[in-house]
Specification:
With 451 residues, the chain is α/β, with parallel strands linked by helices. The chain has helices spanning 13-16, 18-24, 39-46, 81-93, 103-107, 109-112, 128-137, 191-195, 204-213, 232-248, 266-274, 288-294, 300-311, 331-341, 359-366, 392-409, 414-420, 425-430, 436-450, and strands at 2-7, 52-57, 71-75, 98-101, 118-122, 143-147, 174-176, 179-180, 200-201, 220-222, 254-258, 279-284, 315-322, 346-351. The protein has a six-stranded parallel sheet, with helices on both faces. Strands 7-10-11-12-13-14 form a six-stranded parallel sheet. Strands 8-9 form a two-stranded antiparallel sheet. Strand 3, helix 4 and strand 4 form a beta-alpha-beta unit. The two termini are 38 Å apart.
Length: 451
């Protein structure tokens, strides 16, 4: 079969709410382009060589609507939903079968089924071969309920051949998955609904093989938030992973996420630091320690975690969500004071968003608090539900206040802004800044000219 994989366009966080950029007062870049998530390269790896594979990224290029395909497979997360529907509708109008899959279709199949011949629910490894066989016979099922109990001991390394060398991406990291599922069923997180409440840990040898096969990419982005959770099995996995990474002497950048619900083991923190991780992407908003610290003004445990991370030599980039049911308008100045008191000089802010499949979505749907199902707005930059202890306007105004007050109080020089935020090339040129990626592109251009 001739199969087209589509990664739909989505409107970026800063792009959808220009009030944020006005509040920042700095030339942060709103329309970055990053390589796709893992859904499509996993499907590519699972697809036998007998099939002819094509790929289109709606964020970079036009979708080939006029071309004939035997199957169009669209991978989608929530902010991509509207565009995914548009792509699906156009192909179906020509009689070309379409299947929708990914985190959004897995959690909202009843809506997706209006726009697709088939909807795939669950983990690709458990049903993609069945989809291919049915498509070849022209007998796609309306729903494939694959489930979420895939044995990660059999994890197939994602195949990025369709997009790895495509031009136009601003950010080209190796997006790396170590875990499937999570036992912490946080209110605003869809991982448990999509991948189950049992945490499954991928074999270290398999992970290291993937890293070694992708040394040409621009560093590693570890997509899992679980690495530093206080759990004995997770700690064992993390120690082994970073020990192997240290042995590999990996020299490129590594982005690692954590939260105030932190394993403070100094041996583990030092090992991660020794691997070259300089900054932790520290997420405040889902875990109980972060919620106590900001929503309930009980910061002791969170500040202990921050001190442990800073004492280990890490910078902290704080990602802070507001809009919990416990939040009142006092949350906004309290958050800025918290950052200043703990010497956290780099941060971003987002509004809690009840994505389909999350406990918050189910709760708000049942109680009539969902204000819109325009999924373009489900990206953390908009209020899409009725807050409990403040008005919609108060939450919107407080969110903008956070950005404005933070960038006013922490007046960062352009060089430091560039380290943690994407800035337009025009501005970088104007202030005489050339970052490492720019230098690499310039060197590559010189080599191409020489050839």
């Amino acid at each position: 079969m001739k199969i087209l994989f589509v990664y739909p366009k989505f409107r970026k966080y800063l792009e959808t709410n220009p009030n944020i950029l006005k509040a920042i007062g700095a030339p942060v870049y709103a329309e970055y382009k990053a390589m796709p998530s893992l859904g499509i390269p996993i499907l590519t790896a699972l697809t036998p060589d007998e099939h002819e594979l094509h790929f289109a990224d709606g964020n970079l290029e036009d979708i080939p609507y006029d071309e004939d395909f035997d199957l169009v497979a669209i991978n989608s997360f929530t902010p991509q939903a509207k565009y995914a529907y548009e792509v699906a509708d156009k192909f179906r109008a020509r009689g070309i079968p379409v299947i929708l899959g990914g985190i959004f279709p897995s959690n909202y199949p009843e809506d997706c089924s209006k726009h697709a011949d088939a909807v795939f629910v669950g983990e690709a490894e458990l049903g993609w071969h069945e989809v291919l066989a049915d498509a070849q016979r022209g007998q796609l099922k309306p729903i494939y309920n694959a489930g979420c109990n895939f044995d990660v001991e059999k994890y197939v390394i994602p195949d990025r051949r369709l997009f790895k060398h495509k031009k136009g991406y601003d950010w080209r990291p190796l997006l790396l998955q170590n875990f499937r599922g999570c036992q912490f069923n946080c209110a605003y997180c869809a991982i448990s609904a999509t991948n189950g409440k049992k945490m499954r840990m991928r074999p270290i040898d398999n992970i290291m093989q993937e890293i070694e096969e992708n040394m040409d990419l621009d560093g590693i982005y570890i997509g899992d938030d679980q690495f530093l959770l206080p759990d004995p099995e997770i700690e064992k996995h993390s120690l082994e992973f970073f020990s192997r990474l240290k042995e590999l002497n990996y020299q490129k950048s590594i982005l690692l996420s954590a939260s105030p619900l932190l394993n403070k083991n100094p041996k583990l923190l030092q090992l991660i630091r020794d691997c070259g991780v300089n900054t932790l992407y520290f997420v405040f908003g889902w875990d109980p320690v972060a919620i106590r610290a900001l929503s309930y003004n009980d910061p002791h445990d969170a500040e202990e975690s921050i001190k442990a991370v800073q004492d280990a030599g890490f910078n902290i980039f704080a990602s802070i969500g507001v809009g919990q049911d416990a939040d009142t308008p006092e949350i906004f100045p309290r958050t800025i004071d918290f950052l200043e008191r703990n010497q956290i000089n780099h941060a971003e802010f987002w509004i809690q968003t009840p994505f389909p499949g999350t406990p918050a979505w189910r709760k708000y749907k049942k109680t009539g608090r969902i204000l819109t199902e325009d999924f373009d707005m489900y990206n953390g930059a908009h209020v899409v539900y009725q807050p409990k202890k403040m008005s919609v306007q108060e939450l919107e105004d407080g969110f903008i206040y956070l950005w404005q007050e933070f960038f006013t109080r922490f007046n960062l020089p352009p060089e430091e802004v560039l380290q943690f935020y994407s800035m337009s090339s025009d501005f970088k040129s104007k202030v005489g800044i050339q970052d490492q990626n720019d230098e690499q592109k310039e060197d590559q251009g010189k080599q191409e000219l020489a050839i």
